Amino acid sequence: MSTDTIYAVSSGTGRAAIAVVRLSGTATRAIVKSIVRRLPPPRTAILATLRDPATQAEIDSGLVLFFPAPRSFTGEDCAEFHIHGGRAVVAGLLGALGGIDGARPAEPGEFTRRALLNSKLDLAQVEAIGDLIEAETEWQRRQAVRQMQGGLSRQTAQWRSALLEASALVEAEIDFSDEGDVPEALSRRVSGVVGPVHDALRAELAAAKSSERIREGVVIVISGPPNAGKSTLLNALARRDAAIVSHEAGTTRDAIEVQLDLAGYAVTLIDTAGLRESADMVEQIGVARALEKAQNADLVLWLSEADRPAAPDERLGAAEVWRIFTKADLVVNKDAERGLFISAETGENIGLLLDRLTKRAAQLSGEGHAGLITRERHRKAFAAAADALARIDADPQAPVEFLAEDLRAALFALERLIGRVDVEDILGDIFSRFCVGK
What we know:
Layout: E1 5-9, E2 16-24, H1 28-36, E3 46-51, E4 58-67, E5 78-85, H2 87-98, E6 103-105, H3 110-117, H4 123-134, H5 138-148, H6 151-176, H7 184-206, H8 208-216, E7 218-223, H9 230-238, E8 256-262, E9 265-271, H10 281-295, E10 299-305, E11 321-326, E12 340-341, H11 350-364, H12 376-394, H13 400-417, H14 424-432
Parallel strand pairs: 1-6, 7-9, 7-10, 10-11, 11-12
Antiparallel strand pairs: 1-2, 2-5, 3-4, 4-5, 8-9
Helix pairs in contact: 4-5, 6-7, 6-13, 7-12, 12-13
Binding site for (6S)-5-formyl-5,6,7,8-tetrahydrofolate: 22, 80, 120, 438
Enzyme class: hydrolase
Binding site for Mg(2+): 231, 252
């Protein structure tokens, strides 16, 4: 880990009432003293005049806080300058810091990386901080807070502790027994530990999709033949003109995505090209992309005109398809058993459709009470651990060396999940998504 003292603006960019500039590293104490001439008491804000150490020119007056190691976010000496947020003020302080030997601008996520390396956070908590920063809906925020507070980490640590106990029993049998077979008493003890952990992992894997939908959003695709009112519906649900609406068939060639917040649940609503046979190469590409979006969606809204109903395209391959009949103001007979009749022109049943979509988004997201898995990385780690434990469950009388190897595999998967073993290969991707001041 670098011994440099790093600094960065931790608040938002651009002009603001207040800007926060953060420091972390061994030179923090000396740097603070050089700028404000005294060191604040630990974790206590003081009002001070900030000066450029090189010229003694006054930069601003603001609050200064000092957090001595190890009781700081990074585990190192840290400090914060809370100054006025004008661009020139911020630039003046950053320029002064840049002129101090041993201080350099932080890289994206470097403060959090140092917290990880100093064991102030584990890998799951690091990811949760990134999720909290990016959270746009209430349930995304709640999920990120739970993970940041150690929800996944605590449960993983409990499973790890149980498996370490089983592993110790098996390793002791290897060390002190001349027999290759597993004694029945040991088999029962190992099964008694492994079984509940295996069951818990399988339950989490079963709930994984719901948890991931909270973080990534429920994907709803609007599909149907050309001129069925797909773009009009997208605009109505988004409450803005996100898509071009035209009476000319085939206007939409590429998918148009809109992010919605439905009662705190994130939803990605996608308008796609009309499905029909066409000699136009560009339109064919649009149709192929539309089908791909539909096949990967959580829900497809199949639109067709109420006076010209069309059955859902057999190529959709979606898990769930709702039939929606548009331009309902043009027909009299509206059989609710066939589907929902709507009219963007009059607003008929648009609110009802939105209510139903909100309810379904909540259901697909586990009503907000989903499990611990929020990322594909988590899912893979849980699956690897569960697979290893499944082999033990399937044959608890297997040679003791096999049991030991499977337990080690399960432990490695869980330890990699929370960053207890080498995870350098994934840190770059994680921290590349962080802002500089975090």
